[in-house]
Predict the structure of C-type cytochrome.
Amino acid sequence: MKRILIGLVAGAVISQAAVLVGDSSRGAALFKSQNCETCHSINGEGGKMAPDLGKRASRGYSPADLAALMWNHAPQMWSAMEKANLTKPKLDSQQSADLFAYFFAARYFEKKGDAGRGRQLFVSKGCAECHNITSTNGLGGTPVMKWASVTDPIELARQMWNHSPKMRDTMGAKGMKMPILTALEMNDIAVYLQNLPQTKNLKPEFAPASPTTGETLFQAKGCIGCHVGENSLAKKSSMRTASEFAASMWNHSSKMKQQSELLPEEMRRLVGYIWALQFATDDGLAARGQKVFEARGCGNCHDKGLAPKLAMGERANSYEMISVLWGHGPSMQKQMASQGIKWPRFENTDMSDLLAYLRTRR
Ligand code: HEC
Ligand code: HEC
Ligand code: HEC
Ligand code: HEC
């Protein structure tokens, strides 16, 4: 497991947590090889026996949410697997991170925004001036059909960052004001573009790079110059959606005098870092987590010598909890049944609070 230290200002380490970053194409392969696809679909594609995993769209979809969902549904899932004669898969932490990245990418394709509104915005925000759908027009904007960003939210963020200064200049020359995009508007535009007949069947992708190298770049590119103190990105603890991120990349040009272009690899690194930041800081309340631990009866075994003393330290993160579930869950479930302990359910912040508590046990 990779352990990263994130220090924003020299000497001021804000968080110390083990954060893995997943890769959606590895996740997609696992989804097949581990037979998830036999029962589950992603946005309509795949088995129909179990919930569609691309459609879990609550705004703050995080690894802790996925861990809680899997724990909650595990007993039913296992009995469905036994009936279907499928062996229960084992997943390590990295594989759990890969699956999360895959579901996250699938949500980028989720038809939650309003394509009709998106089409209007594409015109009213001036995008259609330069961009046709299938052909290149006189102003040279890449036709939408050829956009890598339609399938890849990181590429979308990069493009929004890279060409907003040019647009600001073009529009300035015509005496127009640079349009600001809200996250909602960006999402509507993305939904519109992803659901054109020409783009609808493309496969999603989401492959952020290592947070450690991303942090270096965050400094080298001068992001740190503004994002310190009150503006530190670590201050915002909720998850950013892909559209929110792309919209903020676009809106920067109105705040900056100079903006250097980012290469694909650079944006992957920055996103890896910013992603890891939000998981490293979104870490729940240990005191509440202790109550969850007690109320769910975990201590009945783990503090009474019937099961390993839980001293996970930094190993207690969402991906590890998914891995533990698939590895130890079935035998834990048997023991629980024999002691009349109900299989636990986790709601709201229960899982992240529990993890915060487990990290304090060493
Ligand atoms: C044999 C069929 C089957 C297989 C294979 C299977 N699942 Fe499930 N899964 C289910 C069923 C049935 C449910 C719903 C259980 C319930 O209603 O409590 C479920 C629920 C879930 C949920 C909660 C979904 C929600 O939105 O409520 C997640 C997440 C999940 N499964 C992930 C996976 C992953 C990842 C894999 C592959 C490693 C997998 N499942 C393999 C049958 C299966
Ligand atoms: C003044 C002309 C102009 C306008 C207006 C414009 N673009 Fe562009 N856009 C371009 C050009 C030129 C490129 C090719 C950029 C390059 O190759 O560096 C481009 C590229 C892109 C790409 C990258 C496509 C890919 O390869 O994945 C995206 C995404 C994009 N634009 C989105 C938008 C959106 C959204 C708007 C409206 C908010 C917009 N553009 C408005 C000229 C424009
Ligand atoms: C000139 C100062 C400046 C620089 C340099 C800068 N930003 Fe920003 N950034 C801002 C401001 C101002 C905001 C808007 C904050 C707000 O609206 O809450 C912002 C917003 C953001 C957001 C959204 C924050 C949120 O609360 O959701 C992200 C992500 C971000 N910037 C990333 C970057 C990255 C990556 C770089 C370097 C490539 C960078 N910024 C460089 C000033 C800057
Ligand atoms: C009925 C007894 C019992 C209860 C109640 C129980 N567990 Fe376990 N747990 C076990 C056993 C036994 C193992 C080891 C299983 C194995 O070796 O496969 C285990 C393993 C684990 C592990 C893996 C240990 C490691 O270091 O990797 C974790 C994490 C865990 N349990 C968490 C929990 C949590 C959280 C709860 C409460 C929601 C809980 N357990 C409730 C019996 C229990």
Strands lie at 4-9, 12-17, 41-42, 45-46. Residues 296-298, 300-302, 306-308, 310, 312, 324, 328, 331-332, 335-336, 339, 341, 344 surround heme C (ligand 4) (CB under 6 Å). Confidence is low (pLDDT under 50) at residues 1-18. Residues 22-109+283-360 form one domain.
